[in-house]
Amino acid sequence: MRVTLSDTALRHIALFEDVTGATAVDCLVDDDRVCFLVATGEMSDAIGPDGTTVEQVEERLDKRVSLVENADTAELFVANALAPAVVHNVTISENASTVAYAEVDRADTGVAIGRDGETIETARRLAERQFDIDDIELA
User: Fold this and answer.
1) 3-state secondary structure of 33
2) Is the peptide bond before 84 cis (omega within 30 degrees of 0)?
3) Within 10 Å of residue 17's Cβ, how many Cβ atoms?
4) Which helix (H) or strand (E) holds 35?
5) I need a surface site. Which of 34, 54, 96, 104 has the fewest CB within 10 A?
6) What Cα–Cα distance (Å) separates residue 107 from each residue in 57, 75, 87, 101, 119?
7) Burial of 121 (0-12, 13-18, 19+ CB in 10 A)
8) Which DSSP state fits 83?
9) What are the residue boundaries of the KH type-2 domain, all occurrences included (predicted)?
10) How many other C-beta atoms are found inside a 10 Å radius of the C-beta of residue 45?
């Protein structure tokens, strides 16, 4: 699937890559928050020592920043998007729609959902853009 980025998202990606040295594959921009999809294996560069690099990005954008590491498979992608929740298994079901069922540690259900549903909604948006997944449900 081809993702079309807005001018704002492209500017945010350029700033992110300049500050972190990591590659951003995608970017979701909300009013008070930006989520970057970071290239596989580059998450430590994006975060930086003790989180200082990502904090610099937050300061420059004046927004909260969240990071998701990209993956080659839809199952691993969904697990990454729900992090730091512990995801034991992800099953993709393709019927009338494509749904990812994520088996999350019971103690981490709230973490997977996030404040006001932010984490799971971001995971859903990214999964749809990257893997044509229509929904993510927690099991």
Assistant:
1) strand
2) yes
3) 18
4) strand 33-38
5) 96
6) 31, 21, 11, 17, 16
7) middle
8) T
9) 13-72
10) 15
pTM, two decimals, is 0.93
Could you give the CA distance from residue 53 to residue 33 in angstroms, rounded to a whole number? 16
Q: What percent of the chain has pLDDT over 90?
A: 94
Report H helices in 42-100: 43-47, 52-61, 74-81
Please tell me what DSSP assigns to residue 93. Answer: E
- Count other C-beta atoms under 10 Å from residue 69's C-beta: 22
Q: Is 14 helix (H, G, I), strand (E, B) or coil?
A: helix
> In terms of residues, how long is the chain?
139
pLDDT by residue (tens digit) across 86-96? 999 999 999 99
Task: Give residue 131's identity as a one-letter amino acid code.
Answer: F
Give the integer Cα–Cα distance in Å for 30 and 56: 18
* SS3 category, 31: coil
